[in-house]
Amino acid sequence: MKQLVLFLLIAALGNAIYHISQKTLAPTANPMVLLMAVYAVAFVAAALAAPFFRTSAPIAWTAQVFNWPVLALGVSVLLIEIGFLLAYRTGGSLQWSGVAVNGVSAILLLPAALLVFREAFSPARAVGLLLTLSGLALMTRK
Fold first, then answer.
1. pLDDT at 32
2. How many CB atoms sit inside 10 A of residue 62's CB?
3. Please, how many CA atoms are within 13 Å of residue 36, restricted to the half-sphere of its CB?
4. With bands split at pLDDT 50, 70 and 90, how would you rate the model's confidence at 141?
5. How far is CA 26 from CA 30, 76, 84, 89, in A?
6. What are phi and psi for residue 79, nearest 5 degrees?
7. Is the pTM here over 0.70, yes or no?
8. Are 84 and 31 in contact (CB under 8 A)?
9. CB-based contacts of 3: which residues, under 8 Å, 6+ apart?
10. Residue ranges per domain, the chain?
11. What is the pLDDT of residues 7-24, one digit of tens each?
């Protein structure tokens, strides 16, 4: 559990840096050129970190990257990036945009979590879902 908390804190820190960086990108730059530069930086950083993340069983790199989840993840990351970039360019709020997107994502993921991954759904989670919907309604009120 301690590792999980550490990894979630790392993700939270990255998420905060991500949103501040997205909000401060040059507003007149071509969004796709910006994303290519961002991914070039991420590619180099991942290549430098790769030796520290070895797996116990050797798997050919082609088997690791040539499959549908990698393709789907690549497309989804592009949609996330361009969505936030354009949202911030049109006045999206730094304080609630990320929360709103994550809340809607949690709701969209519910069918897959229950039907495909067979995750448990409890009364407490139902209340959490209702609170998420309530929070989204409050955040979008003017």
1. 96
2. 8
3. 5
4. confident
5. 9, 23, 14, 9
6. -65, -40
7. yes
8. no
9. none
10. 2-140
11. 999 999 999 999 999 999
Closest CA to 140 of 90, 86, 103: 103
Q: What residue type is assigned to position 103 of the chain?
A: G
At residue 141, the 3 state secondary structure works out as coil
Give 22: exposed, middle or buried? Use CB within 10 Å, 0-12, 13-18, 19+: buried
- State the DSSP string of 9-64: HHHHHHHHHHHHHHHTS-TTS-HHHHHHHHHHHHHHHHHHHGGGS--SS---HHHH
- What is the tens place of the pLDDT at every residue in 25-69? 999 999 999 999 999 999 999 999 998 988 777 777 777 888 899
Amino acid at site 117: F
